[in-house]
Amino acid sequence: xxxxxxxxxxxxLVLFITRxxxxxxxxxxLIAILAGLxxxxxxxxxxxxxxxxxxxxxxxxxxxxxxxxxxxxxxADSGAAQQIATGLMKLFGERYIQWALMITGFIIxxxxxxxxGFVLVIPLIFSVAEKFKLPAVYTGVPMLAALSxxxxxxxxxxSPAALVGAFHADMGKTLMYGVLIAIPTVILAGPLFSKALxxxxxxxxxxxxxxxxxxxxxxxxxxxxxxSLLPVLLLGLTTFASGAVPEGGPLKAVMAFLSDPAIVMIxxxxxxxxxxxxxxxxxxxxxxxxxxxxxxxxxxxLLIMGGAGSLKQILIDSGVSQEIGDLxxxxxxxxxxxxxxxxxxxxxxxxxxxxxxxxxxxxxxPVMSRPDVNxxxxxLSIGAGSLMFSHVNDAGFWLFKEYFxxxxxxxxxxxxxxxxxxxxxxxxxxxxxxxxx
Length: 437
Fold this sequence. Notes:
GO molecular function, one term: gluconate transmembrane transporter activity
Family: Belongs to the GntP permease family.
Distance between the termini: 38 Å
Helix content: over 70%
Low-confidence stretches: none
Radius of gyration: 22 Å
Organism: Chryseolinea serpens
Number of strands: 0
Largest sheet: none
Structural class: mainly alpha
Order of helices and strands: HHHHHHHHHHHHHHHHHHHH
Keywords: Cell membrane, Membrane, Transmembrane, Transmembrane helix, Transport
Subcellular location: Cell membrane
Number of domains: 1
Number of helices: 20
């Protein structure tokens, strides 16, 4: 009976978000309350479970996500993203222009949130397409595939960062495994798949072209790449170093402190504040204004994460998680595939990759105690599934359609299929890594 109640609540969540257009945070809260009542939790204790779930989810995340948003906004406003794009295009030349755009999308996609990155790179895509007389969709898909993969696979993006916290995974390992899977996935969904899109023609929308900053006002290419990738570098270095340091010594405690994702993001932001801000003669007030604006962009995302955490806690406190675990353990499917499939189903129904990933957590959590489940790979499996087949209920679908001026059919042939390739290739990469580690 409890399983049927959960299925009913999830179906109602999908209905609230898709049909009634209810805000996802409010939908999660209402469903958490309803699920608590239907599952027999004392009414007086429901709010306690909701508050605990929200606090647990956001407690480990808010520093990472907030600092990540600030770093991404500074990367964009300082011209570092523009410098990376210009420098890599000069390096690769016309022949490999798609690869230059793909690598640019990957580098700037790590600190930038998806919607910000999307709007930022659109003028670049149209400019390159016009300069080299190339179809805009063919030119842009590799870059947008890279942005999508970093959004779904790699911390400090909200969904993977939340999954790391929920599954108590190691963020450094998750990032390294994610990069290993992301590289072939982006190549497959980007330069290789885009060859089939040469016949899709999009009008050159000059409305979306922005005036670039003068070159003498830009940070150098080296500084731009270093500042953007510093969280990745620090997480990678501290993860490797922690494994080489003897247990029990004072150095181990120091490495544990430095490898904490929150500390990594604070250090990265401090460095970028100087390299991309103060060093470029940007006033501290201007930098702080940029940081303030970045938080406005992610406020709703944080609330949605908190709401998802509340629903997860209701499932735990009601005891239904154990029932779900027993049911899933009886299914002869690998847990990593199950996690991916759950995220796929919710993504196709709801549209939001973040909501899909966070909702799948509460369902798949009971199987995490199994010895054959790697928490870092489960993060990546659900992250890949959360990108499956973006269609008309996803804001990203309409962003792509409207910016490129495409029909719905051509948007499905390009954008939706690209996202599906990312999801499937991501799962294949997860399973290959699972067999090797």
